[in-house]
Amino acid sequence: MDLVLDSLETAPVRRGTVYLVGAGPGDPDLLTLRARELLEHADLILYDNLTSPEVLAFAGPHAERRYVGKKRAVRVLEQSAINALMVGAARKGKSVVRLKGGDPFVFGRGGEEAQALVREGVPFEVVPGVTSALGAGAYAGMPLTHRDYTQSVTLLTGHDVNLIDWKSLAGRQTLIVFMGLISFPKIADRLISAGLDANTPAAAVRWVTRGDQTVVTGTLASLPSAIRDRGLKPPALVVIGEIVRLRREIDWFDKLPLRGQEVVVTRASAQAAPLCRRLRRLGARVMSIPVIGFEPPSEWGPADRAIRDLPSYEWLVFTSVNGVDRFVERLDMSKRDLRDLPPRICAIGPATADRIRALHLHVDLVPEEFVAESLAASFRNISLEGQRVLIPRAQEARELLPIQLGSMGAEVDVVPVYRTVLPDSSRQMALAAWSKGNPPDWVTVTSSSTVRNLARLLPMGDLRRSRLASIGPVTSATASEVGLHVATQASEYTIEGLVQAMCAFVTADRARNG
Length: 514
Ligand code: SAH
Prior knowledge:
CATH architecture of the largest domain: 3-Layer(aba) Sandwich
Bound molecules: S-adenosyl-L-homocysteine
Helix content: 25-40%
CATH topology of the largest domain: Rossmann fold
Number of domains: 4
Strand content: 15-25%
Number of helices: 21
């Protein structure tokens, strides 16, 4: 019976199974495809302090997430309790992902967990991850096995310096010390006593591959005091060997245009990912604080009536991606479908147009400039006299567009298909972001509603300590209205335009300040 089920089962994730999954070193783009698939489908996810929030965000909506790491150096759960949790959940038929920072079998007890699963007869799979050691090599510009400098790499734990035979290591060419930041003064001493040259280059790398990656360099002799002076804290690796020198030549990560910039993304959580990802790839430290959320409109009556009368319209005008999505969802719930749409479709902005095209629909009109005003201008050459125009959009949108189209003779119906709200969780996140030592360098705003909500969320004095990057003139005008200065505005009113404007600003600023 089991066998038949096995061969028929095509689901990517099996119930009653534990997956020991490497979460990679931090940058969520370094997750494996298998890890992502498992996260999307698992029932229970057990994670610890080395797991990035962005990685956890891949979890499916129904997954239970449970933190089993350390809090202030105290383990929340003993290893035996974690094992019991995995085994118990699997026996109840759950699919369990045990997420481990880096690779599950490079330190961090993945081996012990696998042994426990074997003992208990629980089926499991091990998914490797990019270990922090490889992350440090790549993102700190240290080719771990450059053949001109080294023929070997040793990964070792600095947790208990008495367990290591330092003499046997002193001849090795690249050493990577895990869990050795606190004990590094002792480690350096032992290596030097064992015969390693005190001038051997060494680097400590904290939070490898993340936007806040920090590298402290020196020699075996000087690194301990450099670590202390910089106040570097775990988690960090220490890399020792001649290859550390190559950083100066091939470090690419530190040269990224937005490196070191802390950027707050205010878009709704469902829409934030592409901007966050783009910023992260440019080296920014990204914080997603959604100051806007989408809810159904107060009443569906007007939208439903418009859908019922859909064939009577000549034009359908969408002003946002969200408007397209919510309208089509509502259409799905009605007796009508895409075949009943009006003959002409218009979209504000390329993102809205793309969303319509993704439905395999042609877009007849996309205004040159991506603001409501220019849409009205684009309609000037088209006769709207007596034409019925439907605009499904946000409940609280501006009146300019329907008024202008109306003045051109159109009979305009505006129907709300969603309502924007200020999410409850955002206030706490915003207050925390602005109450630490340095305020965020940037806040990105991509619509008037994000600006208004931001102004409701935080005192102006706080907001003014960060630079505002705006997606276009309408958003910028709203910023001025609420009393905020816009540091830079996209020249093409798109996400990419916004990112380019920030890069240009930072580059110019750096050139000015040397
Ligand atoms: N399985 C993990 C290692 C777990 S042991 C891996 O493959 O990377 C925990 C130690 O790993 C930490 O003390 C630190 O030395 C190192 N480490 C893990 N993730 C790290 C990160 N993102 N940045 C720096 N060091 C990290």
